[in-house]
Amino acid sequence: AADKINLIPQDFFAELCEQIIQHLNHKIPGVNTAELCQRIQASGIEINLGELAKIANIISFLFSTAARNNLSTEELITTLGNAVSVLPKHAVQVIRHVWNEQGKSIRVSEDARNMATVGQFVDIKWKLGVAMSSDTCRSLKYPYVTVTLKVADPSGQITDKSFEMTIPQFKNFFRQFKEMAAVLETV
């Protein structure tokens, strides 16, 4: 992962660290590595989503462990020890700066983070489509609804989950949401 961190420009690495700190502080539901990866790739850097997600997990683990152990900025950098010689200088500078500026804020909320065991819903998108034909059937005229859920898993990675439903399935899905809304109004 250290060789891939070396590829990431300092401003993108700083943005990744900032998003991780915001996630650990429960200010955002997760780190949008897919969007950040696209922007890094657009700048001409060759990195894939899996590699960036691995880096995000490492930095998140680093910050959450430092928060659990109540480390100062210098203790964090010293604890990195041998890794500092492997990590690029700009990455160590960013980690030092972000932890120095915002590290104290996650020390309080880390207990709440340890209790999170399920993902968090971020967004939902849907679209209505009609399958007109296929290579095996000339005339389908089959309506369907595609739903895309954006979910932040417990580690903070934001992923999209998509599925299709027939119109009867969608009506049942909609009815269940109306039932949930009615129950929530009574709370």
TrEMBL record:
Coiled-coil intervals, chain numbering: none
GO molecular function, one term: NF-kappaB binding
InterPro entries registered for this protein in UniProt: COMM, COMMD4/6/7/8
All copies of domain COMM, residue ranges: 120-187
Family: Belongs to the COMM domain-containing protein 6 family.
Functional note: Scaffold protein in the commander complex that is essential for endosomal recycling of transmembrane cargos; the commander complex is composed of the CCC subcomplex and the retriever subcomplex. May modulate activity of cullin-RING E3 ubiquitin ligase (CRL) complexes. Down-regulates activation of NF-kappa-B. Inhibits TNF-induced NFKB1 activation.
Protein name: COMM domain-containing protein 6
Phylogenetic placement of the source organism: Eukaryota, Metazoa, Chordata, Craniata, Vertebrata
